[in-house]
Write a structure and sequence with these properties.
By secondary structure, the chain is an alpha+beta fold. Helix content is about 35%, strand content about 35%.
Amino acid sequence: MTDPNLTAEPFTADRTRLEETRATRQVVERYLRLLGTGATPAELAASFSEDVDWYIAGHVEAVPWLGRRHGRAGVADFFRQFREGVRQVRVHLEEPLVNGDRAVVLGSFDSLLTASGRVVSSEGAVVMTVRDGLIVHYRVLEDSYAVAQTIGDSSAASGSPARDT
């Protein structure tokens, strides 16, 4: 039996996709390590492109760290606001699911909300796209309504639009 020609078109495309997947995994895992080590907001923001497309849907009047962010300064601002409003009690992140330039990280959290002094439990997913070693697209999908209710803002049901920063 002869070895297949691994330089043929389908194998080259598969190899390129595999290399892209590995590179994406490295960027995502580095970012998650930074999150776990208490890195500064600026250190965390350095994982993102200057033109990152960042959005976490939710009621921004009740939960000020939600909404759309622009650039590294906006990302750093998110981490500052988040740390002012939340103390993580428990974080469980699954192994990143990575294919090409896209990654999804599933997780569950117990968070102490400083405004109410109450703990909220949530599950969610972070969806990221990586290019040139930086995160260029970032979405957090979670039940942000439950977070707003736990904070205790009675206007949470108004569904006001997200803020851009």
